[in-house]
Automatic annotation (TrEMBL):
The keyword Acyltransferase does not apply. Pfam families: Ig_VWDE. The keyword Iron-sulfur does not apply. Keywords: Disulfide bond, Signal. It comes from Rhagologus leucostigma. InterPro entries: Dev_Signal_Modulators, Ig_VWDE, VWF_type-D. One of its GO terms (cellular component) is cell surface. This is VWDE protein.
Length: 295
């Protein structure tokens, strides 16, 4: 009986003669009678709606389709559907079996981030689910993605609440493994902005820079949404003839002339120095802040 075959179609990306193809593989019935396969390739054209892009009948246990930038483009979610039937009796056929959805393009992992204004670095992986191909290019092959950040949903547009470790990443060709054919990482940190502005949203966008491959030219990857949780900020002060208030509210005066270490973090490379000069004249020994240096 052909009705209950477990064909289990799976889509994997592959380079064929330097061009990006998708391969649909499925399990032949065992023991194998003379069987043909009808393979239908489709893409998600709108939520819940598929559009057919290619179909073929083959005796092979696989089928290829090219990512040509026209029928199949980067950013498409692709399916293959396989039906088996015996040669000469096409009416005796198995139930059609769908592959899992395959997203062709750039993915960010995780797909969204929730971070806090605590100085911690969060690793964001940028990966391509399809091989990086450079047809007709003999020199160094890569796709460069320009990264940018944007504030979301504020009444008054302001700077983004996040900072990236790099402004661009290079995706270099490597053998496909799992869902990744090329990957790079970037660290994301929430900006400590000393203001109580509530939880805010930002987004990270990526854009391929001047790609030679036509497949990448009209492609804009999906954004990553980052929610930044506001945390209260500590404050310390040194003012006038210096009155000093520490982070924990202790108050004292420092009338001395010289350069002093005002603040140093024990957890990161951050410190503030202050320079004080005599400003009291002959009547009183008073010093005033006249310079500051922060690392």
């Amino acid at each position: 009986k052909l009705t209950s075959l477990a064909l289990q179609p799976v889509i994997t990306p592959e380079l064929v003669q330097g061009r990006v193809h998708l391969k649909c593989s499925y399990s032949p019935p065992s023991p194998e009678p003379p069987v043909q396969y009808r393979v239908l390739w489709s893409r998600l054209s709108s939520p819940g709606k598929r559009e057919q892009v290619h179909h073929e009948t083959t005796p092979q246990s696989f089928s290829y389709v090219e990512m040509d930038g026209a029928n199949l483009r980067l950013g498409d979610t692709v399916f293959c559907t396989v039906t088996a039937f015996r040669r000469g009796t096409p009416e005796q056929q198995s139930l059609p079996e769908d592959s899992k959805a395959f997203y062709a393009g750039i993915k960010f992992l995780p797909e969204s981030l929730e971070i806090a204004e605590d100085g911690k670095e969060h690793v964001l992986t940028v990966l391509s689910t399809v091989p990086i191909a450079c047809p007709g290019q003999d020199d160094f092959c890569k796709i460069t993605l320009l990264l940018s950040t944007e504030d979301l949903g504020s009444q008054v547009p302001g700077p983004p609440d996040i900072a990236l470790s790099v402004c661009q990443v290079d995706l270099l060709p490597e053998p496909c493994s799992g869902s990744s054919c090329a990957a790079a990482t970037v660290t994301v940190t929430a900006v400590t902005d000393f203001t109580q502005d509530g939880n805010r949203g930002s987004r990270i966008s990526a854009e391929p820079v001047a790609p030679r491959d036509v497949l990448w030219r009209a492609y804009t990857p999906r954004d990553v949404k980052v929610t930044v949780r506001d945390l209260p900020t500590g404050n310390c002060y040194s003012f006038t003839d210096p009155h000093i208030i520490t982070f924990d509210g202790w108050r004292y005066d420092n009338y001395k002339v010289g350069t002093f270490l005002l603040c140093r973090s024990e957890s990161r490379a951050f410190e503030v120095h202050v320079r004080q000069w005599d400003c009291g004249g002959h009547r009183s020994a008073t010093a005033c802040n006249c310079g500051v240096a922060a690392q």
